[in-house]
């Protein structure tokens, strides 16, 4: 690829950030960087970072900015990010967005665009309570909207599917509140920087994907 594609996927829990990011990875060959996935991996490995973040994640609260920024910037230094990346679930606060801005500037990198996926809360609750995730590759499935071909197994890598601990109704409701209070202000933040592209995330997965591809192809 001759141009850099430095993208952010912004949206509430369940908006489809992970689902769309996986499809974009396949088409544009840039890595998906999900801070949620990175921190779930840290928790499973039992590392000291995992110990620090697990309580916040279980409660559906945001992990403190300094910890998430450290994890993100470390991952962003990977060789595979040289041609671009999709940030899935980062930034989630204005403080994180400002840290990212500074870090990209320091590295001579520029954001290509921010894709914001809008979905009403009622639909999000329905998506998340019946979501299943692959233990190996983190692909998302849904018991009604996106069933795996073989029950309990990932179509992509045959990994075992599980339900995320924070996909209980009580924790989802807190994650939604946290989104509206702390993350939604980023819509205005990126609009002011003329970097925001909004998509209706309450449509069929393939239709949203096609809209996101049109946005990406219009960038630069
Ligand atoms: P994270 O893992 O990022 O979770 P999240 O933001 O809550 O987002 P989700 O992964 O739940 O949703 P998604 O948009 O990826 O939806 P998906 O594609 O799976 O973060 C988890 C936790 O980590 C946070 O609560 C926080 O504690 C911590 N954290 C992470 N990043 C942080 C940060 N930057 N700062 C601080 N803390 C941080 O789709 C959902 C479901 O819907 C699936 O079942 C899917 O099959 C289905 N679906 C997708 N699209 C459609 C569609 N168009 N129609 C119907 N169904 C659909
Ligand atoms: Mg996700």
Could you describe the 3D structure shown?
- Helix 1 (17-28) crosses helix 9 (205-218), helix 4 (65-76) runs parallel beside helix 5 (94-106) and helix 6 (121-129) crosses helix 7.
- This protein is globular.
- The longest helix has 15 residues, at 169-183.
- A hairpin with a 5-residue loop joins strand 5 (131-134) and strand 6 (140-142).
- The model has no long low-confidence stretch (mean pLDDT 96).
- With 220 residues, the protein is an alpha/beta fold.
- It has a domain at 5-119 and 182-219: 3-Layer(aba) Sandwich (Rossmann fold), CATH 3.40.50.300.
- The chain is built from 9 helices and 8 strands.
- 48% of the residues lie in helices and 15% in strands.
- It has helices spanning 17-28, 35-45, 48-59, 65-76, 94-106, 121-129, 169-183, 185-192, 205-218, and strands at 5-10, 32-34, 84-88, 113-118, 131-134, 140-142, 161-162, 196-200.
- The strands form 2 sheets. It has a 5-stranded parallel beta sheet, with helices on both faces. It has a 3-stranded antiparallel beta sheet with strand order 6-5-7.
- The protein binds BIS(adenosine)-5'-pentaphosphate and magnesium ion.
- BIS(adenosine)-5'-pentaphosphate (AP5) is lined by residues 11, 13-19, 34-36, 39, 56-57, 60-63, 68, 89-92, 96, 127-128, 131, 140-142, 145-146, 166, 175, 205, 208.
């Amino acid at each position: 690829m001759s141009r850099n594609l430095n993208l952010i996927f912004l949206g509430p829990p369940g908006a489809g950030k992970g689902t769309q990011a996986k499809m974009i990875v396949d088409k544009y060959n840039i890595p998906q960087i999900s801070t949620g996935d990175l921190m779930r991996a840290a928790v499973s490995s039992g590392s000291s970072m995992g110990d620090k973040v697990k309580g916040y994640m279980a409660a559906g609260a945001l992990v403190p900015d300094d910890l998430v920024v450290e994890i993100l910037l470390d991952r962003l230094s990977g060789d595979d990010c040289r041609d671009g990346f999709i940030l899935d679930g980062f930034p989630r606060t204005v403080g994180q967005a400002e840290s990212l801005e500074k870090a990209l500037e320091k590295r001579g990198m520029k954001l290509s665009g921010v894709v914001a996926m809008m979905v009403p809360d009622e639909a999000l609750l329905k998506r998340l309570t019946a979501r299943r995730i692959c233990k190996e590759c983190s692909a998302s499935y849904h018991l009604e909207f996106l069933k795996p071909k073989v029950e309990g197994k990932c179509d992509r890598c045959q990994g075992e599917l599980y339900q995320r601990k924070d996909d209980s109704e009580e924790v989802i409701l807190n994650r939604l509140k946290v989104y509206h209070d702390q993350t939604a202000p980023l819509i205005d933040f990126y609009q002011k920087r003329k970097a925001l592209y909004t998509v209706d995330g309450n449509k069929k997965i393939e239709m949203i994907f096609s809209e996101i591809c049109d946005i990406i192809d219009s960038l630069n």
